[in-house]
Specification:
Length: 616
Amino acid sequence: MKRIEAVNDFVVKFANVNGSGSASANELFAKAILRMGVPVSPRNIFPSNIQGLPTWYEVRVSERGWLGRRGGIDMMVAMNPQTWAQDIKEVESGGYLFYDSTKPLPPSAFRDDITVIGMPVTAICNATYEDSRQRQLFKNIMVLGALSMLMDIDGGVIEKLFGEQYKGKERLLESNVRALQSGRGFARDHLNPPNGRAVDLRVKASDQVGERIFVDGNTAAALGCVYGGATVCAWYPITPSSSVAEAFEKYCRKYRVDPDTGENRFAIVQAEDEIASIGIVTGAGWNGARAFTATSGPGVSLMTEFIGLAYFAEIPMTIIDVQRGGPSTGMPTRTQQADLLSSAYASHGDTKHVLLLPQDPTECFEFSAAALDLADRLQTPVFVMTDLDIGMNQRLCEPLAWTDERRYDRGKVMSAAELEAGKEFGRYKDVDGDGIPWRTLPGTHPTRGAYFTRGTTRDEYARYSEAGHDYMLNVQRLLKKFNTAAALVPQPVVRAAAKKTRLGVLYFGSTAPAMDEALEALADSLIHLDAMRLRAFPFTASVREFIAMHDHVFVVEQNRDAQMRMMLINELEIDPAWLSPVLHYDGTPITARYITQAITSHVHALAVSPRRERIL
């Protein structure tokens, strides 16, 4: 058997029981490697119950900086007997299995083509600790210690992380350090064979992290809302978006409290349900506040009537949709990109909403702030479409940047002075051809600029009207405004292939890290693709041009029904045969291997020939 040998390039997966206290130890494993200057990308795969069901924590270590899931496991730390068969099956041939050997297992439980390392962790903890909770918690730290010794992870780095975590709690600090050293000592004395290594996966100090930061998308989005000027947040708890509102409150209490009076310069309301939360946001937006809510797919479903009102009455609001598996309750703690259609066309009748599609926490920060500007500028709901993979997993990304010279874009808001000077005000009148009318804020002027806000049809001056002509003028103007948005939203990012090619690929959001790696792997196999990362809806003219330049285009997304492909076909009037879906929807983040294999199979089946006609 040829063992896998790798330095700073491998995947380790921890299989645990939810509620066992393993999460913090697993996170320390990832952070210790990161502190040694080696890029990591962890993903927490956990159940929606409180405790008892299986949970996994996968850590991608890649000095080259690949941050997507690769596919395949080089080392499994199997601490959950319930999932043993499934876990051991995932290990690559030549890989490693680390397990708790307190209870002997028959030879049939193992594989001949992997290296097995057993450590009687439970027995050691039972002999060391009397308290049952301590036995469980410190078992995880002992495993961490053993792995750090076997894989050359600097124990001093982990101890420093302990010091940061337990600052002011010296008793906890000392006990964790003892458990760590106990695990390291056991591995040193009992697990490495004479004149050899038990594990040929090693971590070597490097300098490939640079100035990048380690943060999750929900936290970054919340900070983006703070910097973007949001003062009102109304929300109802729902996985995986709740931490957006929680982080927003934390940052507001730090940055939005008047230092002289102690007064809060923000309002955060945990409403009784999603309907109430979006109603509060609608009212706040109508009053001129920058307001947002954070939710997931089931919340968007409940909010659609208010979203439709805000669209038709032209009220700014921002909705951060951290997508999860559906339909219905679906998979609350799994990731998907399955809310595209329900968000883009939310509400009944003819509606189209702006969607922003961030790829990582940096763009979660940037796009959340931009969404508040766009909502004001366009006087409409704007969605920031993240998902659980981006939102709840810490990701290595570029630092969050802001310039103090940046000014909020409030759009067309008519002032008291303009009204006093006699400037004509028609609330729903298109005065310059972009489809966006002027608005006034409540209390702007004592006698001028007032209008009645309604969800029913009206004319340009907000007067009630059921005349078909008035209705058509209004909805056509709304469509014109949506088309104006195409020039204002974040533009697509194009990556040209090294060689001229007739193949293209479109992708977006959390598929980006795996896609980056897959493109290189495909090129190594002589399959060259021009790539375009979509960053917003409505689609810009460049998307249509990109498709027109290629004889075949793949659309990579994480849902069953190829929702992005459907939107491209619908909005750009593309022949469906020209767009091949690459779909992944088991609830786990897509892997580079999956994309590579799927596109390779498509290409071999296509025998691509030039199109008979062009789109343009």
